[in-house]
Amino acid sequence: MKATAERIEKNTVLLEVEVGQEQFSSAIEKAYKKLVKKVNVPGFRKGKAPKTILERYIGKQALYDEAVEMVLPEAYMKAVEDTGIEPVAQPELEMVQAEEGKPVVFKAKVVVKPEVKLGQYTGLEVARPDESVSEEEIQKELERLQNRHAQLQTLEEGDVVAKDLVTIDFEGKIEGVPFEGGQSNDYTLEIGSGTFIPGFEEQLIGMKIGETKDISVTFPEDYGREDLGNKEAVFTVTVKVIKRKELSPLDDEFAKDVSEFDSLEELQADLANKLKQAAGDRAKNQLRSEVIAKAVENAEVDIPPEMVEGRVEEMLGSMEQRLMSQGVSLENYLKYTNSNVDDMRANLRPDAERNIKQMLITDAVARTENIEATDEDLEKEIKKMSEEMKQDPEIIKKVLEGQDQLDYVKKSIIRDKATQFMVDNAVLTEGTNPAAGE
User: Is 238 helix (H, G, I), strand (E, B) or coil?
Assistant: First the structure.
């Protein structure tokens, strides 16, 4: 087989492929054996008609078309491999020659991964992210823990106050007419959670058990449903139950009850360490994001629309899978958000383009700096995956091999190393690099 590649546009290559006569003759024979089993030829049992008779009955071209369909996919993939191009969309094929006794010749117009012209990617100046943790943050985390382990007391009487859990019945009306989704019974709401429309929860404060009251609110302009956006509504609300959190005092006994520590001081120290670790992780991710963003800004790359649309479809598919895992179909999600698939694609497109740019730039940096994924890198990544999934590393490796995912894992490792290379060679405006790899 012979293949040549000619760049005819910025991101488009024209492949010209020639498949040898012997290979095509072999494909014709396979096509005959396949078709003769499917076609009823008068005077012959199915599968027994000679090739010449079958050709006269269905036409030579039908036989050649079947043979071409057998030859083309393999020949195209081999041509891609031999020429080293990286397609990002399905090719446009054009048959040039397909006759028995002659080579098969076809052309393929292929949109390929764009070339990247790197700008500055080392010595990038970025601000050192803040990793500090204040005493106030530690105290808030302690209070969250206190609230999480609070005992709920059902009040016999009293008024609604902030942070109470109330059970309510409500019916909403716009201009006196009930609207879909505006009614519920025995709904539990935490006052101050921000679950409801702005202004709704605040107007419940001071209500008593058994009291009914009309609450006036205005739906936000950007509310999820266009038919409600910016509309004034009146909700008739009845408070049925008030539950109030009873907080345990913050002392050593509390620490023993909610943790493995014997003192409040030890618990506070542990919370501080966890907050510092989380702040360090955020700082590392922020630094990597800013370095990549600057490298992307300095680079030149013209992304073909086909590549962006392909990424949009991948993101849409991932979103649909996440929704299904939560028991929600994409169709119902679109109804709930008063949206459609085209709107969703439009919303995903900027992120898709940004993701592609980041990928292309990190790939280009990796090539320029000869960054590779070693066997040791791969083993470490598989071990990490096995720990997260609580599975034997060998099983993880076999699954990846069976799904042809090892190359994907290697590419991820290379991109991660390329990003870390840029981070390690960045210039921080303050202090030293907290996210540099060991």
Answer: strand
Q: pTM (2 decimals)?
A: 0.73
Token duo for residue 53: 């008779």
Decide if 131 is inside a domain.
no
| Distance between CA atoms of residues 31 and 424, nearest Å | 58
In a domain, residue 343? The reply is: yes
The DSSP string of 111-172 is: EBPPPEE----SS-EEPPPP----HHHHHHHHHHHHHHTPEEEE-SS-B--TT-EEEEEEEE
Q: Which amino acid is at 216?
A: S
How many helices and strands, by DSSP H and E, does the chain display?
Answer: 13, 13
Same domain, 340 and 406: yes
How many whole angstroms separate alpha carbon 422 and alpha carbon 436?
Answer: 10
DSSP string, 334-394: HHHTT--HHHHHHHHHHHHHHHHHHHHHHHHHHHHTT----HHHHHHHHHHHHHHHT--HH
What does each C-alpha distance from 156 to 32, 239, 241, 383, 384 come to in angstroms?
86, 13, 9, 56, 53
The CA distance from 384 to 386, in Å, is: 5
The predicted-structure confidence for 415-428, as pLDDT tens digits, reads as follows: 999 999 999 999 99
pLDDT digits (tens, 9 = 90+) for 114-169: 999 999 999 999 999 989 999 999 999 999 999 889 889 999 999 999 999 999 99
CATH number of the domain within which 7 lies: 3.30.70.1050
Any domain includes 127: no
Neighbour-count burial of 291, counting CB atoms closer than 10 A to its CB (0-12 exposed, 13-18 middle, 19+ buried): buried
Which residues share a beta bridge with 87? 112
Q: How many domains does the chain have?
A: 3
How many Å apart are CA 225 and CA 233, to the nearest integer? Answer: 14
Q: Are residues 309 and 406 in the same domain?
A: yes
287 plus 384 within the same structural domain: yes
- For 209, the domain range is 151-246
| Same-domain status, 308 and 417 | yes
Q: How confident is the model at residue 60 (pLDDT cuts 50, 70, 90)?
A: confident
- Any domain includes 398: yes
Q: Is the Cβ–Cβ distance between 209 and 242 less than 8 Å? A: yes
Same domain, 17 and 83: yes
Give the model confidence (pLDDT) of 185-229 as tens digits.
Answer: 999 999 998 888 899 999 999 999 999 999 999 998 878 677 788
Q: What is the pLDDT of residue 434?
A: 42
What is the share, in percent, of the chain residues with pLDDT greater than 90?
A: 64
- Dig out the tokens for 422 from the structure: 């840029």
Q: Which of 246, 264, 292 is the last residue of a domain?
A: 246
Q: How confident is the model at residue 308 (pLDDT cuts 50, 70, 90)?
A: very high
